[in-house]
Design the sequence.
């Protein structure tokens, strides 16, 4: 069994999906932590998944997680597993309605000081939490690369002071474009990138959905635009951003090159687009991964800051 060098810290959600025409897909594996872990896995690395799971987690979901990840970081709770309706409209808007009463523990636990977590040293980890959690996880893994993906509900609060505290503790910060536009009150992605770097981001990866991503680090005067990797049939965009973060983390840890890391993120995200919920790891992963990574590299172009 390969070593667990990377962690995805975030939520696991069971999605019950309703499409505009009335079709349903019930009991689908989702959640930001799960998607980020698959982003790590698509690079060929073994991911450790850290999150909260209820005793009623469906057996097939549990078996899938245990087959694909190191699950020693999953902490059990007596609360029913977080589960929600994902209702899609014809215009692509998704409405989420949770089907359980207790949600917050699944979003924010386990905490960084949980002594039951077995991981002592890792190369890097993704963290899908509010800014007040960043410092404690930074302290737990001081030598690891920390990619902070701020949670949506926090970013839409536009609490800029709290955002600054998270940025300064993380090695990489990766919001999506809509969230960053709300936080900064401006629309232009290049100006948002300038602002994040001026606010202290060591590496920034701005995720822009079907438009790809914009990545940069301070002092270089140039950002890098990475297009989204095209797939034959986009089935579901949910979770692609989380998957991007898992891929970006590994790419950055392997060479410290932000443009290459962005290409890793784009390649990883493309697998998610082809599946309902979390993508399956393909049997011919290495060849398919290399093809998609090559496509992302081919579309790379510089953007002046």
Sequence:
């Amino acid at each position: 069994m390969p070593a667990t060098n990377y962690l995805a810290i975030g939520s696991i959600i069971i999605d019950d999906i309703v499409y505009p025409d009335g079709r349903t897909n019930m009991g689908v594996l989702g959640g930001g932590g799960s998607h980020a872990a698959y982003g790590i896995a698509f690079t060929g690395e073994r991911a450790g998944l850290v999150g909260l799971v209820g005793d009623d987690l469906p057996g097939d979901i549990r078996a899938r997680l245990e087959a694909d990840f190191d699950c020693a970081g999953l902490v059990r709770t007596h609360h029913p597993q977080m589960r929600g309706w994902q209702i899609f409209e014809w215009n692509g808007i998704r409405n989420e309605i949770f089907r359980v009463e207790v949600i917050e523990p699944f979003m924010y636990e386990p905490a960084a000081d949980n002594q039951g977590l077995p991981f002592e040293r890792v190369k890097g980890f993704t963290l899908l939490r509010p800014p007040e959690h960043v410092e404690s996880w930074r302290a737990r893994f001081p030598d690891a690369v920390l990619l902070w993906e701020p949670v949506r509900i926090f970013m839409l609060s536009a609490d800029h002071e709290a955002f600054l505290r998270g940025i300064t503790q993380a090695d990489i910060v990766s919001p999506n474009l809509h969230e960053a536009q709300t936080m900064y009150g401006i629309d232009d992605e290049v100006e948002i990138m300038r602002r994040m770097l001026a606010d202290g981001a060591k590496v920034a990866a701005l995720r822009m959905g079907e438009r790809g991503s914009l990545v940069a680090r301070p002092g270089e005067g140039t950002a890098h635009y990475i297009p989204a990797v095209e797939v034959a049939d986009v089935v579901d965009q949910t979770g692609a951003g989380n998957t991007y973060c898992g891929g970006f983390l590994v790419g950055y840890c392997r060479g410290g090159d932000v443009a290459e890391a962005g290409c890793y993120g784009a390649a990883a995200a493309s697998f998610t687009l082809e599946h309902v919920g979390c993508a399956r790891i393909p049997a011919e992963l290495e060849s398919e991964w290399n093809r998609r990574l090559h496509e992302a590299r081919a579309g790379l172009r510089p953007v002046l800051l």
Observations:
- The CA atoms of residues 229 and 270 lie 6 Å apart.
- The chain has eleven helices and 14 strands.
